[in-house]
Amino acid sequence: MVAAGPAIAAPSAGAAVVINEVYGGGGNSGAPYNRDFIELVNRSSNAVSLAGWSVQYASASGTSWSNKVNLTGTLAPGATYVVGGATGSTGAALPRVDAEGTINLSASAGKVALVDSTTALSGCAGKSDPNPCSALSSVADFVGFGSANDWAGSAAAAAGSNTTSLARKGTQNTPDNSLDFLAGAPTPGAGTSTGPDPEPEAQQRTIAEIQGTGATSPLVGQTVTTRGVITAAYPAGGFRGFFLQTEGTGGARDLAAASDGVFVFQPGGALDADAVVGNYVEVTGKVSEFGGLTEVTAAAADITDAGDDFDAVTPATNAWPGTSAEREAIEGMLYQPSGPFTVSNTYSTNQYGEVGLAAGTKPLIQSTEVAAPRSAEALAVEADNARRAVTLDDGASTNFLANSFSTGVCGTRPTPCLTNGDLTPAYVSQSKPVRVGAAVTFTKSVVVDYRFDLWRFQPTATVVGPDNAASPAEFENTRTAAPDAGDINQLGTSDIKVASFNVLNYFTTLGVENATCQPYTDRAGDGVTVRTGCDQRGAWDAADFQRQQSKIVSAINALGADVVGLMEIENSAALGERTDEALASLVTALNAKAGAGTWAYVPSSTELPPASEQDVITSAIIYKPASVMRVDQSRALGRQSADGQAFGNAREPIAQVFKQKYGKGDKFLFVVNHFKSKGSAGPFPGDEDTGDGQGSSVTSRILQAQALRDWVPTALEATSTKAVVMAGDYNSYTMEDPLDVLYKAGYTDVGSTFDNDSWSYSFSGLSGSLDHILVNADALKMATGADHWNINSGESVALEYSRWNYHGTDFHQPDPYRSSDHDPVVLGLKAFVK
């Protein structure tokens, strides 16, 4: 046997052991094999020891290399070595596996590194970075495929698929991924194999010795025997294992000590008969790190009953630790959360059955909601978020949106062959809703876990929807049937109420009507909403539209507002339809429920630019003629909509003067705005995302704020009006630069003034307000109070019309909740200036 020498810097034509084949489609629809795999080959004439090496994986644009498998054994000249990855339900078993692993590769794009150590790669980035991962001296070989941002040579290899792997062309090693690898049928273990060296005799170790006091076990790669009490077991749902805790441990823990809990992984699938909560067992297996979680991998034969003579375990009782180092001290242990916790994220509940939490009485906050970008205060908010964050999981790794479709295999039309869509994610409910901002009460203990780059609370048994019987927590129901009258009338009873409402791409021109439109589909393969290919952005067909409209109508009618500014409504003129056709349709639907004549709409202004210069979504104003009356014509800032101008990439501000119906009250100019989104960069310098928390297109939004600031006085003068109320989706959190332009011009944000402990939007588990009502000094004298009516942003997206028939449970109800992704803001006004 010849020991492996140091790896040659970066992938080299002279490398002895190289990556021979990469396959990430295992178990997916149509896959020939039920597991992902990575195959190595020894191209040299000498045997090479793989001890101390690892195979590591990162997503196409990812920077985390924690998904890895440590290698053992000696590879003979010309021999291949198969590393098994994640398992699915479709396809045959791999002919052989030389190293067990659970790396979950993308079928189409990703990065694989062969590394001459077991330390996860870090401090490196993509090919455009001065320090790409593919150039590290520890990397013996590197394969980037598909849209990967790093590769060996001149370009990445081709994309893979469910049915194709990326395999080396014979013995070719230029090394250039684009030249050396071809897509073709997977051939795992096609060459000869030299399996790993015989396992050394297991050493008796305590769980604390296995865990160690750092982030990584000091015994990685070693075979150990240990004993403990089973505290949680997951016979289904993908975890394939159980948690083990040292007998007699628990209570208040020393957060500088090693943990007394560990996860035991059973790669064979079904759990051993002794893997029952409360049993005392002996386990023999190999120690590894799975994405940061210390675990022992043990076959069923290596898990045995250790008898009845043991001390029971109790939950750890510490307050939730604020650092990862302290959390390591209770990783894998039973834990009883104490003190207040608050729901902070429900978006991924729909997909993974998990709920983001925040220790304390408020959700995690967008730093630029409460502090200026890049300020010390903003950095303090981000640090506080990190200290307080934890995720309540469901005890499973199920992806509830993992639908796969086939034609001609499962039916004559696209129908699901293998799907989790027939299941229901945990923690989604209409009767017991889980909402951002709701208080959480833990009625059962959990296990502290680290998976998929997040610290988690795992239930001791898998939580299964829709009944969620095993849930360790109860959630406060914070739903309200209407906006808070107390907040709106803080300074006296309002005479008029105005509101801002984003109607989530309300389009009466449907996707099914345009042959170029492509849909997002439900679990039956039927379209639900428009995905791409056309100008439409809303519902796919009439049934989807009715579900969308029923929720929007319910929400607007329950607002109690007299004037409502709408965003994201179809710009019918830009689609070649009758001007205001979609707006008129919405008003008709509102009146069908509220009564004839309850609502009317403000016609599109003649000051708007030609339809060709307008976006396919627009803003609009509706009002109650019995409460308020229009004064003068509708207005618009329509002179800056060409390319390179302020509103060339946003919706033009529109406006209308109102006053109380038949009253002698003061007029006010009501302006509706919808600034450029944060998601993509506009054409101006500074529009790229700089990482300061404001997202992309900051310059665009600043220019739009400046144009709005300069235009409003002209509209006030033209209508002899003093008070102005500006509502809308500014795509800016409260302390960001675009809004600062308006603050400096004398405008006040009534949402943060009157309702500063509530927000209108939730993104990536962080709460903040993108929707604002700003008033000048004259309108502020009329203001009585304001409220964010939290009916949308905090609710699970599973309730949205766009997720209809995604799961085995139908969550649709024609109510206000999750009628949009933004919450409405309501402002009360006195009819007279004080």
UniProtKB/TrEMBL annotation:
Domain LTD: 4-122
GO molecular function, one term: catalytic activity
Gene3D superfamilies assigned: Endonuclease/exonuclease/phosphatase
Pfam families membership: LTD
CDD domains membership: MnuA_DNase1-like, YhcR_OBF_like
Region (Disordered): 166-202
Superkingdom of this protein's organism: Bacteria
InterPro entries: Endo/exonu/phosph_ase_sf (IPR036691), ExeM-like (IPR047971), Lamin_tail_dom (IPR001322), Lamin_tail_dom_sf (IPR036415)
Biased segments, Polar residues type: 166-177
Ranges annotated as biased composition (Low complexity): 183-196
Name under which the protein is recorded: 5'-nucleotidase
Species whose genome carries this gene: Pedococcus cremeus
